[in-house]
Task: structure prediction
Amino acid sequence: MTASIFYICFALSLAFSLVILGLIRKKRLRVQYSLLWLGLSGLMMLVSLFPKGLDRIAGILQVSYAPSLLYVLAILAIMSILLHITLVVSALTDRTITLAQSLSLYEEQLRQLKEQSERRKEAEPPDVF
Result:
């Protein structure tokens, strides 16, 4: 591959990092969820700056075609992000169920208090001056 493709990959990874940082700054993305994205972007920047490193790692792992190692690593990274998102969604689902149950209990208590208040008003004798 020519060197220009590595510079293009680096520029795209840098642009992606800047987009993530912009989303964090605008409070559209929380820091805890962006760490994986920033880490992957940083890794892509390293791979694009030092492509021989990928060849060395592929040689150590006895992978004959280094770009296929990159694909496997990318799939593992995406699976990690999906697992993280699934864990967050599961926790939010549990929290939503708990909040809905609490809201139902509070609505029932409010309804009972209103009924008691109405009964007391009906039972009180009218004030006569």
